[in-house]
Amino acid sequence: MSLLHQLDLLLAAGVAEAAAVSADELRGYAAVLPDGPDVVLAVHPRLASARALAALLRHDGRTGFVVSDMTDLDEFVPTGGVCIPDAPLYLVHDVDRGDDMRNWSPDESLPALQQRGRTPLTINEGISWLLQEPKQLEPNHCFMTIASRKPKPRGLDARTPAIWISGGTGRDGTDRRGAPKVGWCWAGNRHLAGHGLGITAQP
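Predicted structure:
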């Protein structure tokens, strides 16, 4: 998918409005990036927060949301050796859900990804990808964005952000059944989920 097409999809999703910039400004940010195969436009959290982007997700006509017990989502920042480019929009290469790491814990998957020369996705990168390729959000295919963690005075918060489809149970509410959901999982626990990954590229 060309960068121009990806940009059109981000504009159609409402990224310019979420970022409080004009469509022309967003086009200008993308214009300086090199097009190429298997690249995905990622929205820097300084341009639009993960919470703002989550609200733009759609699945079966349902609007995306952040779980009620993750009020601190925007305090999760790139960690684990991941350094994102200092640009409003940047590129991530060869993105996938990391389905081959289903039932791995984030703590187990991170060193394995690093050995492969890959990087885990941040939450902004994961949402940016789904805004362009919504079909990647499928039932029973939750994926974690383990490059985003919340720093604490001693180490990291034990949670890692994840994206899946709500079943409409518990605090989600039945009206959110089938909606895209940004939640969290414990970093030390194994889950029936993939670990979204890609290779971050400088602009």
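Summary: The longest strand covers residues 89-96.
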